[in-house]
Design goal:
Layout lengths: L5 H16 L5 H9 L20 E4 L2 E3 L2 H10 L7 E5 L5 H8 L3 E6 L2 H13 L5 E4 L12 E6 L8 H5 L1 E11 L4 E10 L2 E10 L11
Parallel strand pairs: 3-4, 3-6, 4-5, 6-7
Antiparallel strand pairs: 1-2, 7-8, 8-9
Helix pairs in contact: 1-2
Bound molecules: S-adenosyl-L-homocysteine.
The site of S-adenosyl-L-homocysteine has 23 residues, from β2, α4 and β4.
């Protein structure tokens, strides 16, 4: 069951104001974050801090991204309704739900089985309809490629070539690159063999790892 109290709604409103004050301008992104009960994606013991602008533990030594980071990455994607979007790192499913709320068709991959199972069931409970996969995000989903947009929610050492090849011409890939801390990159595929790369400051993510864990 989903319990979304007045208190949660109030805290969420304040979070949206905080994100605006930190420079998030995309109205649809702010609206999505204002609509989605983030606490549902977390353990109930974190209920009181679910609307702080912080990354929080979700099990398997992973974290739900900080709301500012979710908003920033989503804003960089420049989403249009019905686009086909691939997310690498389902984690809690929170970023997935923000994408769904923005009216795009979402495919998401997670390498930790318990997180995949939990996120899938929370997303179903919330009536979102992304396609969830348990697997290695480095491989992408060739059967459903090409994608309009790709978002990677874990830190990659280098730009994953296989994922670039699954991006449409004109598409955007948003990926944090780096080992200990990351720089956010927006990569636009101008032509089949031509990429434009823009950098957007420092962030901190859990690492993007090869292969899946059961
Ligand atoms: N979008 C998530 C963020 C979770 S943290 C959320 O909103 O909660 C990043 C996630 O990426 C972790 O769950 C981690 O297990 C996953 N991950 C890391 N490497 C991966 C890979 N190669 N393929 C799929 N998922 C991966």
């Amino acid at each position: 069951m989903i319990t979304d109290s007045f208190k949660h709604k109030g805290l969420r409103k304040s979070l949206v104001e905080e994100l605006k004050s930190k420079g998030i301008t995309d109205k649809k992104v702010l609206e999505a974050i204002g609509n989605i009960p983030r606490h549902i994606f977390l353990d109930s013991s974190l209920d009181n801090i679910a609307y702080q602008d912080k990354a929080l533990p979700i099990g398997c030594a992973q974290t739900i991204s900080q709301p500012y980071t979710v908003a920033f990455q989503t804003q960089l994607l420049e989403l249009k309704p019905n686009e086909k979007v691939l997310e690498i790192g389902t984690g809690s499913g929170y970023q997935t739900s923000v994408l769904c709320e923005m009216g795009v068709r979402v495919f998401t991959i997670e390498r930790h089985k318990p997180l995949y199972v939990r996120a899938k069931s929370v997303l179903e409970l919330m009536k979102y309809k992304p396609k969830c996969y348990f697997g290695d995000g480095y491989k992408g989903l060739p059967a459903y490629a090409p994608f309009d947009k790709i978002i990677i929610t874990c830190g990659a050492e280098t730009i994953p070539g296989e994922l670039v090849s699954q991006l449409k011409v004109g598409g955007i890939l948003v990926v944090p690159i780096g080992l200990d801390s990351q720089i956010m990159y927006k990569i636009t595929k101008n032509k089949e063999v031509e990429l434009t790369t823009q950098e957007f400051g420092n962030f901190k993510f859990v690492p993007m790892l090869q292969d899946k864990e059961s």
